[in-house]
Specification:
Helix content is about 70%, strand content about 0%. By secondary structure, the chain is mostly helical.
Amino acid sequence: MGSITYDFPIYIAVLSIPVLIIGGGLEELGWRYILQPFLETRFSSITSALLTSCIWALWHLPLFFIPGTSQFNWSFGLFCISIVGMSFALAVIYRISRSIWLCIFSTH
């Protein structure tokens, strides 16, 4: 019977960085670098993070209906809860560091 191995060569991680940035990291430019600061000029940090998470969740909603996507078999409610947590964490990371790169690498 086949076995599961957990060997993961470090070069795979290094080679995956451009894919991670292009595949999902570019979203952080929109959420953390543009939307979050824009909302914070009008609302509190907490309200801004909550609004960002709502928009982020709605952005991904179509993926829950497309067979073959990673979200297809997920629960949208649980996804929303995780997005709210991630949004608050990434808002704090960006607010403290002003580094979009930390946010990009934190989501992967």
